[in-house]
Specification:
CATH class: Alpha Beta
Low-confidence stretches: none
Largest sheet: 6 strands, mixed
CATH topology: Rossmann fold
Strand content: 15-25%
Distance between the termini: 14 Å
Mean pLDDT: 86
Number of strands: 6
Helix content: 40-55%
Radius of gyration: 16 Å
Strand order of the largest sheet: 3-2-1-4-5-6
Structural class: alpha/beta
CATH architecture: 3-Layer(aba) Sandwich
Number of domains: 1
Length: 160
């Protein structure tokens, strides 16, 4: 059957402007032979590899990278983003999604993540919270690698 998910390759689609795990994504994608689309608002330096493609959206286009990702993502893709609303939009299209710290977004929990995001934004605006997230750690990097591998394996099993 033409166009079935068994024929559609698994891709990793990255919201790349501030992604701290690009090198890890490149390593995992190379190991599995997966295409990586790095979507950004400005040009990025990426390794020369036919599996890796940089997509630069028009500068000044608010949410342009997010919109491009949502237009292109499919049920056989994995989105890597720290943007919870973008993750929700990717899940609506049937894709898998995770953030750089290895948090896997799921249809049954994305509503809670969106609500928590809104609450935290409100508390910051009210001056109740200061500072940003904790620094990115080696443990975060390790968790990300494990979760990305788990998602790839789950997609591969689902295709059999």
């Amino acid at each position: 059957m033409t166009g079935s998910s068994a024929e559609t390759p698994i891709r990793i689609v990255v919201d790349a402007d501030a992604c701290p795990v690009k090198d890890e994504i490149f390593r995992v994608a190379t190991r599995y032979g997966l295409k990586v689309l790095l979507v950004s608002n400005s040009p990025l330096r990426i390794p020369r590899n036919p599996l890796f493609e940089s997509v630069v959206v028009a500068k000044g286009q608010f949410d342009g990278a997010d919109d491009w990702i949502v237009e292109q993502i499919t049920a056989t893709d994995i989105a890597v983003t720290g943007d919870i609303p973008l993750a929700a939009r990717c899940l609506e299209k049937g894709a898998r999604a995770l953030d750089a710290k290895g948090r896997v977004y799921a249809p049954d929990s994305i509503g809670d993540a969106l609500a928590s995001r809104e609450l935290m934004a409100h508390l910051r605006a009210m001056g109740e919270l200061g500072g940003g997230p904790p620094p990115f750690s080696d443990r975060d990097r390790s968790t990300f690698l494990q979760r990305l591998d788990d998602l790839i394996q789950a997609l591969r099993r689902a295709r059999r």
